User: Which sequence fits this backbone?
């Protein structure tokens, strides 16, 4: 007679594995919230379209992303029985991994710009909509809001979702060599544009590797925030120093 498998109870300090159905619920919540909130973005457009108006539309898209991933993370935390922040990777990290995260983020910025430019020229892709980031007659207050959303808040919740939940779910079932590229692929798909997807896949691999090695989501969040903020700082720094923005695309 076979005996029923024993279930090892979770010990104190041990992260709770992400269940597949819970991850599926989180994904569904993210899709529904994004589909709902994105309907309001066109309402932000004004006639005639002004520089600040274009930035407001971009802020609307960033807010929709923030709402979607924030809702997905909340869905996991509020499950009954739910998960804790520790289960999503929010654990102490050593200073060396934090320093490495910042350095990796800064080093990746020029590489990402170069890769994006190479891919656009090689495959004759349309340039990014830089006019929404830095249009003529734009608002520095709106620019600061874009940095807050795109540079700090959205990366934080993307990491909690893609590394803290998606990668953790994959890692509990696969070796790191398989889980890292698969989670990076999921991360890349949501970025839509071809050249951005290529860069996002590479970044997703780096972010998952960093999470795997540091055993904390904090360095991944820091790297992602550094990378996004550095890119935005480059764009707005160029605007401040050179009013002609034709070379930013």
Assistant:
């Amino acid at each position: 007679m076979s005996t029923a498998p024993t279930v090892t109870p979770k010990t104190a300090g041990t992260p709770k594995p992400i269940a597949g159905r819970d991850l599926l619920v989180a994904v569904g919540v993210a899709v529904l919230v994004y589909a709902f909130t994105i309907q309001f973005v066109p309402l932000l457009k004004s006639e005639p379209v002004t520089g600040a108006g274009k930035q407001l539309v971009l802020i609307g898209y960033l807010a929709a992303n923030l709402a979607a991933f924030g809702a997905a993370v909340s869905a996991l935390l509020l499950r009954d029985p739910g998960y804790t922040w520790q289960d999503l990777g929010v654990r102490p990290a050593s200073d060396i991994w934090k320093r490495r995260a910042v350095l990796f983020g800064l080093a990746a910025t020029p590489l990402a710009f170069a890769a994006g430019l190479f891919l656009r020229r090689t495959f004759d892709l349309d340039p990014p909509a830089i006019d929404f980031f830095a249009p003529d007659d734009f608002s520095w207050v709106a620019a600061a809001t874009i940095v807050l959303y795109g540079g700090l808040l959205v990366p934080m919740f993307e990491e909690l979702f893609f590394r803290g939940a998606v990668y953790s779910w994959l890692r509990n079932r696969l070796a790191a060599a398989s889980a890292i590229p698969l989670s990076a692929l999921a991360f890349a798909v949501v970025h839509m544009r071809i050249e951005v997807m290529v860069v996002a896949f590479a970044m997703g691999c780096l972010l998952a590797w960093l999470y795997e090695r540091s055993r904390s989501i904090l360095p991944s969040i820091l790297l992602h925030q550094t990378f996004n903020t550095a890119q935005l700082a480059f764009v707005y720094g160029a605007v401040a120093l050179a009013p002609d923005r034709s070379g930013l695309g």
Residues 1-9 have pLDDT under 50 and may be disordered. The CA atoms of residues 179 and 188 lie 14 Å apart.
